[in-house]
């Protein structure tokens, strides 16, 4: 019985983690993908037009802290007005999830 209960808890935790991953992917698709592309490389029409940096490059990843990425998502980019602020559209948890999502581009 204890084994079944532990298995149930593990199953629920895995389901919750998958749901959060799906949610951040959905947020990326809805809010970010049109400029940054599906993989952060900005090889979209808007990404090329605005000369958006490739978020998957190790040099880009190393040159920014999580706090800096979080600030750009929340407050918008100072040097590109097309990158608008999302602090009133996303929760702090959603912004943190997007930071982790952006960090995962380096691995891909």
Automatic annotation (TrEMBL):
Q: Which InterPro entries match?
A: Cyt_c-like_dom (IPR009056), Cyt_c-like_dom_sf (IPR036909), Cytochrome_c_Oxidase_Subunit (IPR050597)
Q: Does the keyword Repeat apply?
A: no
Q: Which residues form the Cytochrome c domain?
A: 15-106
Q: Which residues form the signal peptide?
A: 1-19
Stretches that traverse the bilayer: none
Keyword Cell cycle part of the UniProt annotation:
no
Record keywords, A-Z:
Heme, Iron, Metal-binding, Signal
The molecular function GO annotations come to: electron transfer activity; heme binding; metal ion binding
Do you know which PANTHER family this protein is assigned to?
Answer: CBB3-TYPE CYTOCHROME C OXIDASE SUBUNIT FIXP (PTHR33751:SF1)
Q: What is this protein called?
A: Cytochrome C
The species this protein belongs to is Cystobacter ferrugineus
Q: What is the lineage of its organism?
A: Bacteria, Pseudomonadati, Myxococcota, Myxococcia, Myxococcales
